[in-house]
Amino acid sequence: MVVSTRGFLAIGLGLVGLSLLVGPTLAQQDGAVRKTTGPTAGATPAAPVQPVIGTVDMDAVFKAYEKFKASNKDFQAAVMARQNELMKIKAEGDEENQMLMKLTPGTEDFKRHENKVTELKARLAAGREQAQREFQLKESENVAIIYKEVQLMVTAIAQWRKMNYVVRVTNVQPAGADPNTVMAALQNTMIYYDPRNDITNDVIFNLNRRYKAIATTPSQTTSNAPQPGAAQGAASNPAQTDQN
Questions:
Q1: Does residue 152 sit in helix, strand or coil?
Q2: What DSSP designation does 239 have?
């Protein structure tokens, strides 16, 4: 239902008048108001869930996930193949330039090679721009797929270990010689955490186990949940989940 502006104005003016009327006695009635108003009036509030917090090093997970490594390898191969194509265009342009330098300006041959050089430069610039767009999109899509798989595995392990929160951490130790490690340490939200509640190794082991199982037997449905002895602190009897 659409409420008109006039209706809102009328309600607003009514509330203003009400506040002026009850303002002087609000302090006296505060106790009664709290007892009789609000969404939980007359009901006992539910007890909050006891937080059980785990941690995971997402950078370590990505670096150790075999599927991510394979995806990066394929990505780099595709980039190299496209680069080779562009290098052929550049080499052709360089040859045309060399021939152009030997010709007399204004002649038909000069104009023909000059036009060819212009054409090749345009093809090279357009090819580079197109490749940049394509590979940026492809890289983004690949990372999104991997992230979702990692997220689902983190969820499965956390639920099995009765955790209701998992916080991202980094195990990179700051080194003065490497500014990147210092920045990573400064951006870490956790100064200290109990390593017994870190599920990084469990996530890595089970992601790779699932990836290898699917790669060897693609027609069979495999379990994504942690297995006994998977890694230090791994769950011993996980629930079966499917992340396909």
A1: helix
A2: P
What are the tokens at 146?
Answer: 């991997």
Q: Residue 62: exposed, middle, or buried by beta-carbon count in 10 A (0-12, 13-18, 19+)?
A: middle
Contact 162, 194 (CB under 8 A): no
d(CA 140, CA 137): 5
* Rounded Cα gap, residues 161 and 169, in angstroms: 18
Q: pLDDT tier at 229 (50, 70, 90 boundaries)? A: very low
Query: Which residue is associated with the tokens 């580079």?
Result: 128
What's the mean pLDDT in 58-77? 95
- Say if pTM beats, i.e. exceeds, 0.85: no
What is the total residue count of the chain? Answer: 244
* CA pair distance 173, 193, nearest whole angstrom: 14
Query: In this structure, how many other beta carbons lie within 10 angstroms of the beta carbon of residue 32?
Result: 9
Q: Which residues contact 203 (CB under 8 A, 6 or more apart)?
A: 56, 61, 150, 153, 154, 157
Structure tokens at 12: 């607003």
Are 159 and 202 in contact by the 8 Å Cβ rule? The answer is: no
